[in-house]
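Working notes for the structural subgroup meeting. M.R. asked for a predicted model of this chain before we commit to crystallization trials. I am recording the input and output together here so anyone reviewing the notebook later can reproduce the run.

Input as submitted:
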Amino acid sequence: MTLLDVEDVTMRFGGIVALDGLSFSIEEGHICGLIGPNGAGKTTMFNVVSRIYQPTLGSVRFRGEELLTVPAHAIARLGIARTFQNLALFPTMTLLENVMVGAHSQGRVGFGKAISRISAAGDNRRTRDDAGDLLHELGLGHLAFVPAAGLPFGTLKRLEIARALAARPSFLLLDEPAAGLPHGEVDELGHTISTIRDQFNLTVLLVEHHMSMVMSISDRVVVMEFGRKIAEGTPSEVQNNEKVIEAYLGTTT
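Returned structure, recorded in token form:
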């Protein structure tokens, strides 16, 4: 069953065409890798799906319903959550509190009210318990009461994923989750993404430059260049596509 249908999406910023008639679909339960050189339009596409940008033309349907009429603050209620390239965590708050803020802000209230709720003692025991469970699932349970400030970058990346999962989404958008991680942690993160997909019954759209991770965990891969799709298929099909080799991968091995 198709979860997301992107059809002929065009995004113009003045005279710049960031997306040019882009179309692809994602099957429910799949991990879809979205790859391409810098400037290909990957993050722009993310921002369209997460309703930060309104495209110039085109349609985006989620579970068969038009997503482009839904305001950004309402997409969490549809089951959509995302992470960002640049971490947007609260450094003085504990890991547990960061995840609790995610649960409140993505589900019912804004970040300001969410922080106020967390500051009040014993606000929501169920939310606290759920946040603790998520931290344990991502290997962060032992750090639940530690402030985020000063923790290793890889730990903070996992924390951001935990916060996105706090709203219990069915569709998770991961924007370069492995950026800045050493090679060993990239492999570990890939395993984590596959695990949470299965454990939480997620569909995942993944933008990432680490090709080994994308190819090892994705069911389908969409390749972009200059805002257009130049290839789509299984990882093996994409790796052996001449247009992809020329534009991005540079090798078939």
